């Protein structure tokens, strides 16, 4: 029990270090948090969503985290566990657009495609465009309908993605654009 408490305390201290990192401290904390894997998920999700950080089983806050949610999102995105993906999904469900944008910026097209596709429907333009931008890192042909729609809506990255990977589709987009 004491060993688990010590681990949770260490995790909370590492998460706390992400609030205002200096001189590479953030990158060191990120890599150490990834080593803890699933043990760090609760603290990272709390940090991402702006909740007080508590020791397991306690209600009194160990510390309050007022850092950039991007650090917590990056740490979560680096942990390969379904619970980490669920925490990122909770971040996409936040009412705070800065949290949603931080989550989108941390996602990888090859590991988090479903979350990125969901984010393309976000009410905030920056979040939608960020998600589309992350998706353009891949070249999955199943993305063509989504990219076509984005290109028709004026997203330059989607248009460029189509030109570079599926040039024949660009002619169809141009034809549809003239009909609108």
Can you tell me about this structure?
Helix 2 (25-36) crosses helix 4 (69-77), helix 6 runs parallel beside helix 8 and helix 10 crosses helix 11 (167-179). Strands 1-2 form a two-stranded antiparallel ribbon. The longest helix is centred in the N-terminal third of the chain and has 16 residues, at 2-17. The mean pLDDT is 90. It has 180 residues and is mostly helical. Helix content is 64%, strand content 3%.
Strand order of the largest sheet: 1-2
Radius of gyration: 19 Å
**Helix percentage range:** 55-70%
How many individual β-strands? 2
Mean of the pLDDT scores? 90
**Percentage of residues in strands:** under 5%
Largest sheet: 2 strands, antiparallel
- Name the shape in a single word: elongated
From the structure above, extract its key features.
two-stranded antiparallel sheet, single chain, 11 helices
Brief write-up:
Helix content is 64%, strand content 3%. It is mainly alpha-helical.
Layout of helices and strands:
Elements: H1 2-17, H2 25-36, H3 41-48, E1 53-54, E2 61-63, H4 69-77, H5 82-92, H6 97-106, H7 113-119, H8 125-135, H9 144-152, H10 156-165, H11 167-179
Antiparallel strand pairs: 1-2
């Amino acid at each position: 029990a004491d060993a688990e408490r010590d681990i949770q305390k260490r995790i909370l201290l590492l998460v706390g270090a992400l609030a205002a990192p200096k001189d590479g401290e953030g990158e060191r904390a990120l890599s150490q948090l990834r080593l803890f894997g699933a043990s760090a998920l609760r603290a990272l999700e709390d940090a991402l969503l702006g909740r007080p950080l508590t020791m397991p089983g306690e209600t009194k806050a160990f510390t309050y985290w007022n850092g950039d949610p991007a650090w917590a999102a990056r740490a979560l995105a680096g942990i390969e566990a379904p619970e980490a993906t669920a925490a990122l999904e909770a971040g996409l469900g936040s009412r705070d657009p800065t949290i949603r944008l931080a989550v989108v910026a941390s996602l990888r097209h090859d590991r988090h495609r479903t979350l990125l596709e969901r984010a393309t429907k976000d009410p905030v333009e920056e979040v939608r465009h960020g998600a589309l931008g992350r998706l353009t890192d891949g070249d999955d042909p199943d993305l063509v309908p989504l990219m076509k729609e984005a290109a028709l809506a004026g997203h330059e990255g989607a248009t460029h993605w189509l030109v570079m990977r599926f040039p024949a589709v660009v002619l169809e987009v141009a034809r549809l654009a003239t009909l609108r």
